[in-house]
Please model this.
Amino acid sequence: MALLLFRPAFAQDCPADSNIVFGKNEVVALRLFAIKPAMSTLNSLSQLPQTSITTERRLQVSGSVNASDSQGAVWSGVLLRDFLLKNGLENVPSRPLRNTRIEIVAKDGYKATFSWGEIFNNPTGSQVLLITKQDGKYLDVQEGPVAIRSLGDIRPGARHVRNICAISLLN
Model:
């Protein structure tokens, strides 16, 4: 079973599945249980329940032992669990999904993984965001149009995936 997400017309093929063909304005191809993919756009993502999460990072000021500064951001988009539920997963009983892992793949092949339990049975699920906007502005070409971050992670870099092209549900 696979859920494929994002590939604009100018992007390289997605390493997760090169058989998905996106039409104009389509950025999301959803495939659960090998069913024909359902295509979505950024507009259809914006129709799903939206979440904004504010993060703040404390930065040590160079050359000072005590001085620090902070840098904040407001991330907006759709929680990964809401996206999965609104696109077919709500019809699947949770018992067979308990051993499922959710793999996020970027256009450059970078991958991050979540367990079903993290997303649906843990507070982490309320912090994993499919991001379409940062500080009220759509993501730039380097980041998006869609990225994902696990904003509750202690070390946030490992599960920050830019330019998502696929989300796959794997057993």
Observations:
- The longest helix spans residues 80-86.
